[in-house]
Amino acid sequence: MIGYISDNLLIPILDFFYGLVPSYGLAIVALTIVIRVALYPLSAGSIRSARRMRIAQPVIQKRQADIKSRYADNPSKQQEELGKVMKEFGSPLAGCLPLLVQMPILFALFATLRGSPFADVPYTVNMKVLPADQIAAVEPKPFNSASHSIFIAETDHFPVIASLPRGTKIGVGETATINLHTKDGRAFSEVLGSIDDPGRFSPSWGVTKGEGIVSVSEDGTITALSPGDATVEAKIPGLAARSGFLFIKALGQVGFYADGVINWDIAILVGGFGLTLLLSQLLSGMGMPANPQQATANKITPVMITGMFLFFPLPAGVLLYMVIANVFQALQTFILTKEALPENLQSILDQQRTQQTVNATASSGSGSSSSRLPFEPKGGK
Fold this sequence. Notes:
Strand order of the largest sheet: 5-1-11-8
Helix content: 40-55%
Distance between the termini: 75 Å
Shape: elongated
């Protein structure tokens, strides 16, 4: 499903924007904004639900506890009353449905930006090498990888598949050739023959696991050396993987630290992601009663996620999308916090604010009293 959305929805939109402005960086920005705008009603529903639950949760929990205590011996009445509470305030799970609906599109967008033309596209084949006397008993099962859209020109692309006609199990001393081809059976090399400088899209081959078990040649031919499991990878260069945008050196560049060098453009993108995520978290609590635990979580979460992405292998193009998406999310959150609440929730919020003010005043008075030295008279100067 994700591949279908990517090939039939997101890549055509990408082609359209690149046709307007021939910049893959701007195409990422435009694609992100279009998708976020299209998903606005769904994400707005999740934000509204989270805001309302944050206000109503203390009241819901108190009522649920009272109902369970009052009708402990009457389960049917207990369920009836609990249902009334959910009907009044809504279910805490109501905000999950819009999020689940939009997840396939967001995953497809993520997958699109991790593939061609923004990054090199890997095809991974897990091989199993058996002793020569055992391979005869194995029934061949053809292997076909997932397809990836490969760009060979700015708006010229097609899905490419890696396949092994006799499957991924071979005997020691045998060979098998991985075929890269389109869905209609055309060899990838044949397609490249129709463009200038086809060598820039020639796949690179390597063994990523089990180098003593198999070897692979430049044409994708695998030779089984000894029994065991091995992984072979073919990688097709991305058209725009080495194209820059603004301060980004290459949209396909991966890693904050590589080959002993700090990639400051990746560091800036990751830092921007963390700051915009923090901003979104802070805006989500705007106008709400203070909650020390929630406030701490809102500060710690962006730091943890940012630290993780410093070392997570994401291309610069994906990080650019994440920063733009966070900015859009923060703006959306700010707008929605200005919406009027239902009357019952507004009443609860007013009561919470009043109680918080009373508690703060009492705490302040207690603090000033406790800070008085033992020999000082009460109310004295």
